[in-house]
C-alpha cells in the first residue's frame, strides 16, 4: 500500500492497524468464540478493509491525474468511492446476516466475525483513514507527488472481444471438475475427499514421555503418519497439562492400527499400553449441511435483490450471482481434482469466496453505472458504443482489482507457508478462490452483463449509450 499509494497508503496502513486492534477488542467484548471459520471471517474483513482503501486512493490518483489540487482530489476520491464501498460491504453484510440467522455451528461463527469485520472495516476506511490523511494535509504535507498520480491513461483492453474464450475456459474447468467427481465416485474413492467431520474416523490417544507442541508434531510425526495411515489429513490435538496427544484419522483397520503403534514404539519409545484407539462419529450432521446450503441460497437471493434495487437493472444482479456461482464451482473442481480434504474448512472456504467475490464485482459495476450516468448527462461524447464503455470501465478498475486480490492473496499465502496442516488445507483452496474471484470479476461479470444487456431486451434499448429513440 505504501509503495503504490505513497502517503495515503501509509494512512491506510495505520488505519488497518487500528482496525485489527478494534476487532480484537470487540471479539473479547462480545465474547465471540474464535474458530477456524471465524478466523476466515476476520481474513475476509481485513481483505475488505484493504479493498475499501484501494478504491478510495485509486480514485484520488485519477483526480490528481486530471489536474485537481490535492484537497479537491481527496474530497472527490472519498465521495466517488462511497457508493462502491457501501454497496460492496452492504451486499456482503446481507449475506453475513442471513448466515448468522439461518446457519448453525461453524457457519454461525463465520457470520459473526464477518459481520463484525464489515462494520469495523467501513468505519476505519471512511472515518479513520479519512481523518489520518486529512491530518497529513493539515500539517502541511501537500506535495502532489506524495499523494500519487497515474502516469498516463492506458488504452482500454478489449476484454469483451475475448469473452468467448473466457466463457469457454470457465465452462471447461467446471465440467472437468464434475467429470473427476464421476470418475472418483466410480472408482470407489468418493466424489469428494470427505474428512472425518463428515464421515467419522478413528481417534488415537498417545501418551508420550514428554510434552510436544503442535508445531513439533506437525514437523516430526505427521509426514510419516500420513504414510502409515494412508491419510493425508490427520488432525492433531494436545491435551492440556499432560503429555497426551490425540490423533484423529480416517477409520483405521487392524493392520493400520498395528502399523501406527509400531511407528510410535520404534521412533518415540511409546509402549502399547500408552496407546488407546476408538472410532468416532461425524461432527457435521446432515442437518447442519442442509442448514448451510439453505442459508447460502437465501443469502444469494437477498444479495441479488439488493443489487437489483441499487443498480435498477436485474442484469447486474444476475451476472454478479452467476459469477459468484462460477467461483464456487471452480474451487469445488480444485477440491475434487487435488483431493483436498472436505471438512469444516471447506464450508469456511466457500463462504469466504462468496463474500469476497461479490465485493470485487460490485466495484466494476459501480464504475459502469457511473459512466452510463455521465454519458446520459452529456459530459462525455454521446453515442459511444456500449462495448467501448464497458472495456474502459474494466480497464480503469483493473489495477484496483489486481492490488486488492494481491494483498489478500499475500496474507493467505503467509498463512499457508507458516500454518499447520489444518490451516494449510484451508489456505490453499482459498488462494485458488482469490485468483478465481479476480478472474471472474475482470473477465466474466462485465462481459456477461454486456451480453445480457445487448441480447436480452435489446429491442427496448438503443445499441449506443447516450442516445434515445424519438417518440412516435
Unreliable stretches = 379-383, 459-463, 466-472
Radius of gyration over C-alpha positions, nearest whole angstrom: 25 Å
Number of strands: 6
Q: What is the mean predicted local confidence, pLDDT?
A: 82
What fraction of residues sit in β-strands?
5-15%
Q: Reading side by side through the largest sheet, how are the strands ordered?
A: 2-3-1-4
Order of helices and strands: HHHHHHHEHHEEHEHHHEHHHE
* Cα separation of the termini: 55 Å
Fraction of residues in helix: over 70%
Structural class: mainly alpha
Describe this structure in words.
This protein has 472 residues and is mainly alpha-helical. The chain has helices at 2-29, 36-65, 70-102, 106-138, 144-147, 163-186, 196-199, 214-220, 222-229, 254-268, 286-311, 314-338, 344-376, 386-396, 398-418, 421-455; strands spanning 201-207, 235-238, 244-249, 275-280, 384-385, 464-465. It has a four-stranded antiparallel sheet. Strands 5-6 form a two-stranded antiparallel sheet. The longest helix is centred in the C-terminal third of the chain and has 35 residues, at 421-455. The protein starts with a helix and ends in a 7-residue tail after the last strand. Residues 379-383, 459-463 and 466-472 have low confidence and may be disordered.
Features:
disordered C terminus; two-stranded antiparallel sheet; single chain; about 475 residues; mainly alpha; 6 strands; four-stranded antiparallel beta sheet; globular
